[in-house]
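Next comes one such specimen:
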Amino acid sequence: MSWTESDVEDGFMSVELKRWGQFDDYIRREMLDYRNFIWRGQCAAKWPLESSLDRALRKAGKLEQSELRDEHLRRFKFSTRGRRGLNPPAIPSDNDWWALGQHYGLATPLLDWSTSPYVAAYFA
């Protein structure tokens, strides 16, 4: 084989490939029914699975301060007032607010995943 698979650990498995052609070959040979999987692409395999908000808080040494997350979201909600058009739909939950913020580049506690290995590879 032209790839190396890791054991599944905490629900994750890594596959090491050296060239793009190996990626496509792996998907076609091993993952024909990959609709049951979700994929995440990031630049470096050594990076932890960490949200942009966690990364920023860790860098500032404030990862454990949950009140900072609440304040960050409160400020985002406040900043959207009058910017969502006429009669905007209600946003029912904080998770929905975080998703809206992530769409516009806000540091959030969310991670992007894809049902397509090719989309994930683009971001890697």
